[in-house]
Design goal:
The complex is a heterodimer of chains A (307) and B (444). Chain A has 307 residues and is an all-alpha fold. Chain A has one domain: MetI-like (MetI-like fold). Chain A contains 14 helices and no strands. In chain A, helix 11 packs antiparallel against helix 14. The longest helix of chain A has 31 residues. Chain B has two domains: 193 residues, D-Maltodextrin-Binding Protein, domain 2 (3-Layer(aba) Sandwich), CATH 3.40.190.10; 188 residues, D-Maltodextrin-Binding Protein, domain 2 (3-Layer(aba) Sandwich). In chain B, the strands form three sheets. In chain B, strands 1, 2, 3, 6, 11 and 12 form a six-stranded mixed β-sheet that branches. Chain B is globular and about 65 Å long. The chains are: A mainly alpha (307), B alpha/beta (444). The interface between A and B is medium-sized, with 21 and 27 residues.
Chain lengths: 307, 444
């Protein structure tokens, strides 16, 4: 009897079984507040923006007719949109690369923790935590051709005093320089943390093998920094693509739209012209771009944990 | 080292905390003094003293809020009017909230759309902005309150150009909160240094003086091209040119306009009489700093310039081949549809544009009154007569165009910025004309 029962249990899983009470996984309770906040403040507005982008939506008007993808085709033919996209991409790529390269150089130079390196690291990191608007206003004053320090010094040295923010050729490069200055502190700190985790034995082994400093950098340090570089690159890209504060404060879209970013154009269309249909279409395009670029970067820079 | 580092860190944190506290408290004090200035003590409902314009005495005090953008030196004049109204109307209490035009333009549409906005507001210094608020259905027509009675808005007393600008589809939507013409401010010190004894009265003198005064790091005439009361249209009008005609078709590409713009853009681009790309505020600052000899601006700037210590001269805008002309600027004041006290709000507008209030306003601010039937009044403020005498020659910028704000920001401002940098005026004007016609729907 006992043997039969045991064999029966092992041999075939019972078909109809009384339903077990579902065990409540307490993990869901822990993530519920986050899900709620993300759902209400992030997911729902995204869905609603997508919905609005399919309509002609003016703030305050009674009717919002459905127009399908008309807003998107209008964007396709809008030269100001393509200009904003170009400005945003140029800014993102140059500021991202610039802050990585400068951040890496600074991190390598300020590796050892002495009193002066600690001071310098703080000084270079400070712009990152300063408010974007304050940074923009201060730089606007510094670059002013009448009263600014930069042109004042250039004048004393005898060089020309260009109108940095009003020149169609210099405005975007100037904005890029300010963007790099602002963000390199963050890259420096992240890469510094990465550099300091590289075990000394690897450096010693490389030195014993006769590697020069440059070769050590290339074969020991940089591979170990891949996670840090990926992190910085993704964040720098996402931040760069959302450029608004700096260009709004410093140039308000710049001389003849030369520094108008996608978000600035979105703001103009949505909150100055009150055409939310157009504005949400731009925001959806930006959303897709950021998503695509982030996915590409995560794929390109992927690393295994034992790297 | 460690305990010392901790002490230093603690001191730094303490210093930051203290500075943070003090800055926020000073902000609080200044905000409260601002409000105290605006509102007088609320009077009791059942006041026995008779008031000139009171509605039913007794009953609760109606609270009205106004949002305006008069952050200039003329701000106290409006506050004084509000205080005067509050003291003579015991059962209506008005609070004026002044903020920069840019933040007003951002906050007002949402505030009115959600019903949390003010009862009355001046949405922008640009009279063309009323169309945005009319089309989004956020303001009420004022025709029920128009008339010649004591508590009614006497729209017949406004200049016809102003009434026309504020009338859309036959309904009056706004009253003028102020009315002003642009005049030529000049720096007497810089003029005497350059050996010029009197301000220019003709266009030829104007150009010659501007060139002569551009020396030694100073500019002859400071021109703003964005975020400003527009000055460049005056330079076109002086020569008989214009931007759009009454039907909405572009005229900026016509010969008179192109000729004027070529002259002046060459002056800016080649003779450097003015910096390029300035906002209105930057241009005012340049003049206040004494680095520009002339500026075309309105009555609101006189106080700022005098406070800055400029030896200020005020003259009419020089006369060109088309005769005397200047820009008329008027700020619309509108009543919100979401207001719960529309009648009281209209009563305020009626009092505001009445003779008593306008006389007091003109005396204090130097602005001309918004009424045309007060020519015989005498003013102690000498500026008023200068500003008032140009009123007959004042033209409105993009008058009556529903898409005025878009034409300005998307077409006219970039066009001026292009020609300031040396672009060919005729071809830039042609593309601007095309863009304008597309916006206004003109078929030509």
């Amino acid at each position: 009897m006992v043997i039969t029962t045991t064999r029966h249990e092992i041999a075939a899983p019972p078909r109809s079984r009384k339903r077990r009470r579902l065990r409540w996984n307490p993990a869901y309770a822990f993530i519920a507040p986050s899900i709620l906040i993300i759902g209400v403040f992030i997911a729902e507005p995204i869905v609603q923006s997508a919905w609005m982008s399919l309509h002609t939506w003016s703030i305050g008007s009674a009717h919002h007719p459905f127009v399908g993808f008309a807003n998107y085709t209008a964007l396709w033919h809008d030269s100001r949109f393509w200009n904003a996209l170009r400005v945003t991409c140029v800014y993102t790529v140059t500021v991202g690369l610039g802050q990585l390269v400068c951040g890496l150089a600074l991190a390598l130079r300020l590796q050892r923790t002495r009193w002066y390196t600690a001071l310098l690291r703080t000084a270079f990191f400070f712009p990152f935590i300063a408010s974007l608007v304050v940074t923009g206003i201060v730089w606007q004053f510094l670059l002013d051709p009448q009263i600014g320090l930069v042109d004042g010094w250039l004048h004393k040295v005898g060089l020309g005093t260009p109108n940095w923010l009003q020149s169609t050729s210099l405005a975007l490069p100037t904005l890029i320089v300010v963007g790099i200055w602002k963000n390199l502190g963050f890259a420096m700190i992240v890469l510094l943390a990465g550099i300091q985790t590289v075990p000394d034995v690897l450096h010693e082994a490389a030195r014993l093998d006769g590697a020069s400093a440059l070769q050590r950098l290339r074969y020991v340090t940089l591979p170990a920094l891949r996670p840090a570089i990926l992190f910085t690159a993704v964040l720098a890209t996402i931040n760069g693509l959302q450029l608004f504060d700096l260009s709004y404060v410093m140039t308000n879209g710049g001389p003849l739209f030369h520094t108008e970013s996608l978000v600035m154009y979105l703001y103009q269309r949505g909150f100055v012209d009150f055409k939310l249909g157009n504005a949400t279409a731009i925001s959806m395009v930006l959303f897709v771009i950021i998503l695509a670029v982030s996915l590409i970067q995560l794929r390109l820079f992927r690393y295994r944990d034992d790297d | 080292m460690k305990p010392l580092a901790k002490t230093v860190a603690a001191l730094v944190v303490g210093a930051i905390a203290v500075s943070g506290c003090s800055s926020s408290s000073s902000k609080g004090t200044s905000a409260s003094t601002g409000n105290a200035g605006a509102s007088s003590a609320p009077a009791q409902g059942a006041s026995s003293a008779s008031s000139t314009g009171g509605a039913a005495s007794g009953g609760p005090v109606v609270q009205l809020t106004i949002w305006t953008g008069f952050t200039g030196s003329d701000g106290p004049s409006y506050q004084a009017l509000v205080s005067q109204f509050n003291s003579t109307h015991p059962n209506i209490h008005v609070t004026m909230d002044i903020q920069p035009w840019a933040s007003l333009a951002q906050k007002l549409p949402q505030a009115w759309a959600t019903g949390t906005g003010p009862d009355i507001a001046t949405p922008s210094s640009d009279p063309g902005s009323i169309f945005n608020y009319i089309s989004t259905n956020e303001v009420v027509p004022l025709d029920p309150a128009v008339g010649t009675g004591a508590n009614q808005i006497n729209s017949g007393s406004f200049p016809s150009s102003v009434t026309n600008a504020f009338t859309v589809d036959g309904k009056l939507y706004a009253v003028p909160a102020n009315m002003a013409t642009l005049v030529l401010y000049y720096n007497k010190t810089l003029f005497s240094k350059a050996g010029i004894s009197s301000p220019p009265t003709t266009q030829a003198d104007f150009i010659a003086d501007a060139k002569k005064l551009t020396s030694g790091g100073n500019y002859g005439l400071t021109l703003a091209d964005n975020q400003t009361i527009q000055m460049w249209p005056i330079l076109q009008w002086m020569n008989g040119g214009d931007i759009v005609d009454a039907k909405g078709c572009a005229t900026v590409q016509q010969a008179a306009s192109v000729q004027a713009l070529t002259t002046w853009s060459d002056l800016v681009n080649k003779d450097h009489i003015s910096p390029i790309g300035q906002t209105g505020a930057q241009s005012d600052t340049l003049f206040s700093a004494g680095k520009a000899a002339m500026e075309i601006n309105g009555p609101w700037a006189a106080g700022t310039f005098r406070t800055a210590g400029i030896d200020l001269g005020i003259a009419q805008v020089p006369v060109g081949s088309a005769g005397a002309v200047t820009l008329l600027s008027t700020v619309p004041m509108m009543v919100a549809k979401s207001s719960k006290h529309q009648q009281a709000a209209e009563q305020f507008l009626a009092w505001y544009t009445g003779q008593t209030a306008q006389l007091a306003f003109a005396q204090k601010s130097g602005f001309p009154p918004v009424r045309t039937d007060m020519a015989s009044a005498t003013y102690t403020n000498p500026d008023v007569s200068i500003f008032a005498s140009a009123l007959p020659t004042g033209k409105l910028y993009l008058a009556g165009q529903p898409k005025a704000t878009q034409i300005d920001s998307d077409v006219y401002v970039p066009f001026i910025q292009k020609i300031e940098r040396g672009a060919d005026v005729q071809s830039a004007a042609n593309s601007a004309a095309q863009a304008i016609n597309q916006l206004t729907g003109c078929k030509s």
